Structure formats: structure tokens, C-alpha cells
């Protein structure tokens, strides 16, 4: 029995078209993760058991830390799910070619474009040409271009490409060139490439390409197609009426009809089918962005070629491996497991990644571990591009065990119809009204209502019982364009995190929608991405509260000598060391890892946070979701900086304001605390703060390029000079500071009981420094003698001369310039015969010193900015202290009022914060509008 089973298995293996391998070292990894988990639990316990009591200093900050760490902890658990079960897939391509050649399915390739400026037609046709020349039987290959821009420029470029393909395809196949996108191919050096290629032919095809490119660019620059060119193709008559991006009739043009035996290349071989489609768009009819385009493509292609397999690509993603179709078909055509597979997702790779990947666009860990990890649960994510689909599963069919093998779809419905008939039939399917009252966008095709149509659609396919594969080939199959500036990258991440959080909050939440339909690991894996937006909150909390509480001297972590320090240190170190090791093993460099950490921080505090707010606002029904197209071309100056890996802050974005503010906040408090440490000011207990100092230090280190852009660089990509004076910036600082005012804790100042006379001395470090002084009589031990509550204050300089003099004051706040450094004396006297409690505060502005003495060309603006911010922080703290003392006095004077007064102050601050947050948000929206972001 056992023997027979073995042989059956052997036979299955021999026939299998792909194999799977589990990643190595699973057990060790699971043990290691468990140890970190124990550490995290201990941290939670510590936080829970050490909450400062009501009225104690830093209680709310502490509770905030608890929440943040709960958030980090739970998110970390999710990230373990994608590491728990990593599986790698390997197709066995040779076997496929041996026995399946005549059974190969029809493959329809969809390419989407939406805007001829952001996605230049030359780029689009490079993608088109690369897929038209793939090694696959041409009669089974159809290429569709969906043009959401409805642009005659794109149509013109496609016509040019169809003509050029007659020479390009035979050239590629004859010399087996790679890659098959002409632009990418020709930018490679000929000599260094392949000497088997005939130099003459190479030069001639290169010239043909360049001539075509020039023609297309000339037309693109002009903005319209000249009449004489329009007369060359009937298709242009579609643009005779007023066709705009937002408003036009459906256009379907079969540029090359694959059935046509006369449609051949220069070698006499048949050409693949090539179709242009611009679905109908009307202003009053929602078009659902890319999802809408894809669904129209699914229907139109079913009318024309009805390929069983659909490959969908973004217009910037050219094919880089001529054999990739066959490779990926192995998964679908495997006899034993293939019929369950709905789609095969390939990693999104880029052809413009620089050495150290400054913007963290390409994460090797993401592709080698995380995405493969979700794939390990049979639920690899659909990422929108570079994905092979089984047509039936994409159209909404449920998986069923019976439908083994590929369903032989009826290809080429009624071959007799003419091209014009097919086009007319297709237009109906691409019209606005067609979807009304149907399941398209709900249970059929790509799901509507979310800017990340891909992830949701993948989820619904999984929940219909299908499996999917994440396949990361050594030989990169497709290459796209990574965002070349920080701004573009952050806008893209905003769309993603927004869309994904929206999905989480919708009925498609994987834990609800996927309950009992997909594995728990897959539900968690999905959530790692769907919860990007909310993870911004604990990150922001850390980035703001750490530096501020450091400045105030509030310790947030256990002392180094405490046992509780161990779990913190263990979790922090092991998590980061693990992350470095993982990155290095996956083949990235230390510098790349470091750059990625910076980007993670930036994304989490900007994109994800704005997405979070946007998403919540949308949930309240105040706005609608949009799709901000990722720009794929930039001007030369910008692209040069990208190549040199210099961060580009050259546009106005509220995101940059946030980045600069957080970076400054951390720098200021780090500088502040280091200074206090050296001068031995107030901070005897620096040990308690060491963890915060280290964390702030790391934040400062990772932000180095931000300071550079703020203060040292002069190029166009540096932070706009007036950014610091920008309203957004000030607003933001105000929000943060106000948030802190909520926390009733005073560090500065002393409180003393005065009988007759009491003197204090303060050592003024620099002459010319400004000294801020305040005092409040908090409590007099006599309630009826109110007329004599006041005290006198005399300030004397180092030489004993009287500088300031205040008589009979209940409270006072003043500042003066110290003309001499040295010990100043502050003497209070009480004329009433009762004890009085006085709150006294003195503070010196240190940086005025630098202002006057260190006029170094290079450092001065830098220090100036720091000093201004630091000054602002101190002044606000000083102010806050004074206000608090006043409030307290008020409260004591009128016991009955006390609670109410405190509460009132609290609510006032809360309202202010709310208002400011709203304002920042509105500003952000405003900026976006002003920049005229191309919303499609
Ligand atoms: O109304 C629209 C908007 C976009 N697109 C196309 O969609 C593709 C992706 O748009 P892009 O601006 O390049 O977005 P990316 O952030 O690069 O795209 C990633 O994220 C998207 C989801 O947010 C997925 O759809 C994409 O496949 C995935 O590559 C492009 O080819 C566009 O032409 C349309 O066809 N119609
Ligand atoms: Mn893109």
C-alpha cells in the first residue's frame, strides 16, 4: 500500500510543473520571536503596574506610552505572521515546453495609462513593445491598452508602435535580446552587450526607434496630432468631436487584428493582436479609476480574444524577461495543484533604483520574506501590476474542485465578425451605463470604492476559495519606475495607506470578511498592510513625546540599573538586530537598511498619519476617495539629485513641514539635554533619562539629511528657505506645544514658604543674556488680611547693585538683560506677619550668546534656528509654569471653584488643539489643491 502511494507521489512529482520549498531556519526563528514576545509582554506589565497615580507628574504621558506600546506590540505580532510560514515557489519551465506547447492558453495583456503628461506616450509604448515581443505564440497573445486619458497622443503613439513592432519583434527574436523594451535596451552599451548581434542591423533598428521616438515626442509636445497624420488612420475620427479626459464616448480600435493572416512582421510571422481602448467617461458617472478601467478591459477583451490568462501591467512596467509568460503558466497548468490558483503575483521591481535606495522604494525583505510569507498561507496579495490572473476567477467565479485544469474558454467568439463589428460590440461593453444594475465592481471583476483596488480584489478572490502564488524569480520579469522624489513617494504611500485602512474599516476587513474563509495567518498578513495608517499614531507619539518629556526631565523608561530595563533593551536590540540581519541576508546593504529606516519613520509620521485623518474624515462621509496618479517623469535637475541620492525637498508640501518639525524637535531637546548635562543644571538624574537620550539621538542621526537640507544645502532640492517661517510649520509647532500644555506638570521653578525674607542666587553664564523671572504668591495663611498678601522682590547684580525692584506684588513676570555675568541675587520680603507660599521661576536664554559671538558663516543659520526653537520651547514652558501657578492660586483662593477652573483650562487647551489639528488638515488639503495634483 505504502509503496504504491509512494510511486503515485513520485509520479506526481515527476509531472509537477512547479515545486515549493519552505524557508530554512523556521524553528529557530519561531523561538526567537517567542522570546521577543515575552519581552513585549513584560514591557506591557511594567507600563500597567507603574502608572503614576492621579495627580502625579507625567500620568497622562505614561498612559500614552502604554497605548503606544500596546499598538507597537500588536502590530509586531502581525508582522510575525508574515514570517511564520515563508514558502518559495519554483516553476519547472522545461517540462511545460516539452508536453504542453499546443495546449497553451490564450494570454491577454492589459496595460493601463491615464495621463499623457505624467505617463509619457513613449514610456507607454515601450511597455507595449516589450510585451508584444515576448516569447509566446503570437496568435495566442493579445495586448490591450486602456487609456483613461482618452488621448489622441496615446493613440498616435500606439499606431507608431504597431508599425515599429513589425521590425522590432523579429529583431528581438532573432538575436534573443533582453530586455525587449527598446528604450531600456538601447541605453545599454552595444559592445558590452552581445557581439552575436549584427552591428548593421543593430544600428538600423536603433535609428528606426529613435526616429519614431522623435516623431512621437514632437506630436506630444505639440499637444495634438497634425491633420495629415490623422488622415492615415480611421481611428482618429473618434477625436473629431470634443474629447476630453473627463468626458468622451467609448473608443475601441483594433490596431492589429491577430486573426488577419496579412498582419505579419518583416519576417512574415503573424503579429499579436493590439487593441486601443478608452472607456466612456462622463462627468456625472463615477469611473472608479483603475478598477473601472480594468473591468472595462476584462469585458472588451472577452469580446475580442477572450484569453484564459490575463496579465495586467501598469504603463511604466516593461517586460524584462522574454520567457516570463511560460514560466508563470507553470503554476496554472500544473495538473495537481494548478486549478486552485487564481493568480500569480510577481514582485514590483524598478529600473531606476539607485545604489542605496534613498527613498526605500524597493525592499528586498518585503519581496523575499513578507510577501512570500503571506503567500505561504496560500493568499499572496494582489499588488495591481505584474500579476497573471485566471480570467474566470477575476470575473467572480467561485472556486470549485470539479473544474480541474484550464477551462477551455471559447476563444475568438464568432471568428467571422469584421474588425468594425467587433469594435462596435466592444464599445457597448466599455460604455458608462453598461455596469448599471450589474455585479461589476461588487462581486465581479475588480472591486470599486477603494484607491487600492488590487488588495481588496485579491482578498475577495481568496474568500471565494481560490489560492494565489507569490513568485519572485531570479530573472526579474517586469521593471517599473520608482518614485524619484520624496514628495511623489509620500503621496503614493498616502494613497496606499489610506486605501488600505479604508479596506480594514469596510466590510472587507480580513478578520470579518475572511473569517473561516482564509487562514488566520493570511488575515494577519493582510492586516500588516491594511493597518499602516493607524500605526502612525504610536510612531508620532514617540517622535513627539520623547523629546518633549526629555526637555521637561520626565523619565519614561526604567533606569538602567532596574530589572525592568532588561525587557526594553532586549526587545529594542533584538528587533533591530534581527531586522538588520534579515536585510543583509536578503542581499541589501547596511546603508540601504539605514535609508529604509529613515523612510519608515518619515512615512509613518507623514503619509500614514495624513491617510489616517483622511480616512476617518471619509468615514464620517465628508469626502470621497480619489486616486492621485504617481508621476513617472521629472525634470533633469531633480533626476540628477535622485541619481546622486540627495534627498529632494524641492516642492511645497505640508509633509515636509511635519518632517522638519519633528526633526527639529528632537534635535533641540537633544542639544538641550546634553547642554544641561554638561552644565550640571537641574539634571542630577540624567541616568533616568538615558533611554530617551539614546532614542532621541537615533532619531536625530537618522534625520541627518533633513538637517542638511534645512541648513546646509543651497540647491533647488533643499528645504525652501522660508519653510521655518511658513504658517504650516508654526501651526504644527503650536499644536505640539499646546498638546504639552495639557500636561499639568511643572519642572522649572521653586516653591517656598516665606516668613520675613528669603534670597536666591542664580549664576548668569553670559553677559548680554536675557533673564526671565516670574513669581506668584500662591497661598497666604490669612484669608482676611487680603490687603497685605503681596511680597517685595529686589534683584541685585554680581557687584551688589540693584537691578530690579518690585513692591507689594501678588504676581509678576518680567525679563531683563544681564549686563554682567556672575551670581545674581533675588531677594523676597514679606511685610505681612503671616507665612506665604511663593512660586518662583528664573530662566536664562542661553543662545543669545551664540547670536552675538558665533557669527560663523556656515553654522550661524543653523544655530540660529535651533536657538529660536529652543527659546520658543523654554519661553512656553516658562509661560506655562507661570499660568499654572496663577491657576493654582486662583483655585486655592476660591476652593469651590478649584476643580472647575482646572477642568476649564483643560477643555480650553483641548479645543485649541482640536482647532489646530483641523487647521493643519485644511492647510494640507489646500496645499494639495494649489499644487494642482493631478487627480484622475
Ligand atoms: O484612473 C486611473 C488611475 C490610474 N490608472 C493606472 O493605474 C496604474 C497605477 O497608477 P500609478 O499612479 O502608477 O500608481 P502606483 O502607486 O505606482 O500603483 C500601485 O498602486 C496602485 C493601487 O493604489 C495599483 O493599482 C498599481 O497597480 C500599483 O502599481 C497606472 O498605469 C495608471 O495609468 C488608470 O488606468 N486609471
Ligand atoms: Mn506606478
TrEMBL record:
It comes from the Eukaryota. It is a multi-pass membrane protein. UDP-alpha-D-glucose binds at residues 119, 148. GO terms for biological process: cell wall organization; cellulose biosynthetic process. The keyword Heme does not apply. This is Cellulose synthase-like protein E6. SUPFAM superfamilies: Nucleotide-diphospho-sugar transferases. Mn(2+) binds at residues 290, 314. The active site is at residues 148, 454. GO terms for molecular function: cellulose synthase (UDP-forming) activity. Thought to be a Golgi-localized beta-glycan synthase that polymerize the backbones of noncellulosic polysaccharides (hemicelluloses) of plant cell wall. One of its GO terms (cellular component) is Golgi membrane. It is found in: Golgi apparatus membrane. Pfam families: Cellulose_synt, EMP24_GP25L. Residues 757-844 form the GOLD domain.
